[in-house]
Amino acid sequence: MNPALLEIKNLSVFYDSIQALRSISLQVPKGSIVCLIGANGAGKSTVLRSISGVKQPKSGEVLFNGQPITRWAPHLLVQRGIVQCPEGRGVFPNLTVEENLDLGAYVRHDQAEIKKDLERVYSLFPRLKERSKQAAGTLSGGEQQMLAIGRALMARPQLLLLDEPSLGLAPQVIELIFETIEKINREGTTVLLVEQNAQLALEASSYAYVLETGDIILEGEASKVLEDPKVQQAYLGEAV
């Protein structure tokens, strides 16, 4: 296994008096896709918010490339190479597709390389090139998800945090999004994937964690987690 690009140690997070994460620990090896699955309210998005600096933990530690980053500001984490693609896509509806993508590169100053990355995003998602001058708010849900991922890639992340990329999308669009996630990973970007569609997430990932009410209750190679009877019953709707 490759060394850990990201490591979380004994992380606890509260929202007022409610504990959302209970001393969880996990690792994301460099070059991998690791998924975090669980029901609504399990704490999956809180894990990503804690990594990206949006939510401060009460205790525990987040390490990136071996360096503590637990209380870094979000914009510094983007500069360091951690980029989150949020649940609900969060595109700027009144800006064009290209303007949204340009904003993804706001921490960068290497104009020639930014242009190359823009072409890379358009090669991954040709539909975005076709709609580059169109307002993002006029795109379909699937196109907005492509734009959100493309915008994240414009920051050249070492670690891409994906929060529910399949949410609300048609099956054929979901298939395209997941094919692209795997391609991005093959090209060198490490991915931490939070996803309610457990089947898709486990098939795309090399390692998996199952989160339940703030606790990691199961972890292992994704193919083995996929075969676990409890996971099949709870998340795949299959009888044991």
Give an account of the 3D structure:
- This protein has 240 residues and is of the alpha/beta class.
- The chain has 2 domains: 157 residues, Rossmann fold (3-Layer(aba) Sandwich); 55 residues, no CATH class.
- Helices cover 38% and strands 27% of the residues.
- It is built from 10 helices and 10 strands.
- The chain has a 6-stranded mixed sheet with strand order 6-7-8-3-9-10, sandwiched between helices.
- Helix 3 packs parallel to helix 6.
- The radius of gyration is 17 Å and the shape is globular.
In round numbers, the mean pLDDT is 94
Count of beta strands: 10
Give the N-to-C terminal Cα separation: 31 Å
Number of domains: 2
Set out the fold topology:
Layout: E1 4-15, E2 18-29, E3 33-37, H1 44-51, E4 59-64, E5 67-68, H2 74-80, E6 82-85, H3 97-104, H4 111-124, H5 126-130, H6 141-153, E7 159-163, H7 171-186, E8 190-194, H8 198-204, E9 207-212, E10 215-221, H9 222-227, H10 229-235
Parallel strand pairs: 3-8, 3-9, 6-7, 7-8
Antiparallel strand pairs: 1-2, 1-4, 4-5, 9-10
In short:
The protein has 240 residues and is α/β, with parallel strands linked by helices.
Features of the shown structure:
about 240 residues, alpha/beta, Rossmann fold, 2 domains, four-stranded antiparallel beta sheet, 10 helices
